[in-house]
């Protein structure tokens, strides 16, 4: 009798375990299917104030990496700007970044760059500043930086003003065509390990309906980036999240200075296999982490 009871118990127990295993498997499949459908869609921006802290600037990563900074230019309240520049000074002392990318609309007339000249620690490294002019690509630049492990990082800055003119359906698209030709030619003449294109205006489209011109521009630039193995495009923030990947290309957007909660800096650490990016707020708290591989595939 006891044997029958014991057998029944074990049989019932095994059915319970089997049911639980089936339930968990189905739940996992549902989750991955949901995630698969969401991949490739820009995510709605989440305020940095609600993001969990992931440590401080002093606990970011190994000192052996090659570091550089990027920040959104523009005008800020005096106190906010002071905190931001002091935070950048701390980065400079701890990680010895080799240069700063200033994602700005006004180029060398940018207010943040002008005020940074009063901070000697920040003048020890070169600043490369974008622009979005109304004329031809006066703000274009290309810089090659040798990395300590026999690799080369290429930074290509492009004046996105002509792109905006194209989106506004202006009749004269000569400047736009010249910019596209310049980008193609610049990418075609060299081959490097890492390629980052930098521009003021974001390219990610959040509302694809009734936006044919933006979709045309997006498709054209995406094809160029894929053909010439661009790893990432850095810009100011649009309507998506700060980190977004499409077709193996990372689109990294910077917090705009207009929102105090989003007044932060990006610290990039380059190693032989990946670039790790840390979004740090003006109080020194790491809010988001992102990794780009040499194939351009990124992961938060």
TrEMBL record:
SUPFAM superfamilies assigned: Metallo-dependent phosphatases (SSF56300)
Database matches in InterPro entries: Metallo-depent_PP-like
Protein name: Uncharacterized protein
Organism from which the protein derives: Rhynchospora breviuscula
Lineage of the organism: Eukaryota, Viridiplantae, Streptophyta, Embryophyta, Tracheophyta
């Amino acid at each position: 009798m006891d044997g029958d009871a014991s057998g029944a118990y074990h049989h019932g127990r095994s059915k319970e375990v089997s049911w639980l295993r089936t339930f968990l498997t189905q739940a996992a499949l549902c989750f991955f299917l949901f995630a698969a459908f969401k991949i490739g869609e820009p995510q709605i921006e989440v305020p940095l104030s609600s993001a969990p802290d992931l440590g401080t600037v002093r606990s970011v990563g190994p000192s052996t990496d090659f570091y550089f900074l990027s920040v959104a230019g523009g005008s800020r309240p005096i106190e906010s700007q002071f905190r931001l520049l002091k935070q950048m000074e701390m980065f400079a002392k701890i990680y010895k970044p080799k240069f700063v990318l200033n994602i700005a609309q006004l180029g060398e007339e940018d207010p943040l760059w002008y005020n940074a000249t009063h901070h000697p620690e920040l003048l020890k490294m070169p600043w490369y500043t974008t622009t979005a002019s109304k004329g031809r690509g006066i703000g274009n630049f290309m810089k090659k930086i040798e990395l300590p492990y026999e690799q080369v990082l290429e930074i290509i800055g492009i004046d996105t003003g002509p792109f905006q003119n194209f989106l506004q359906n202006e009749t004269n698209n000569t400047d736009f065509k010249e910019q596209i030709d310049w980008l193609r030619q610049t990418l075609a003449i060299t081959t490097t390990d890492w390629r980052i294109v930098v521009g003021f205006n974001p390219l990610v489209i959040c509302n694809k309906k009734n936006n044919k011109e933006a979709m045309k521009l997006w498709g054209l630039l995406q094809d160029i980036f894929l053909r010439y193995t661009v790893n990432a495009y850095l810009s100011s923030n649009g309507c998506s999240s700060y980190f977004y990947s499409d077709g193996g290309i990372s689109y990294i957007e910077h917090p705009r200075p207009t929102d105090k909660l989003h007044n932060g800096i990006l610290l990039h650490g380059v190693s032989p296999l990946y670039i790790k990016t840390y979004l740090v707020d003006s109080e020194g708290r790491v809010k988001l982490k992102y990794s780009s591989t040499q194939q351009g595939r990124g992961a938060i």
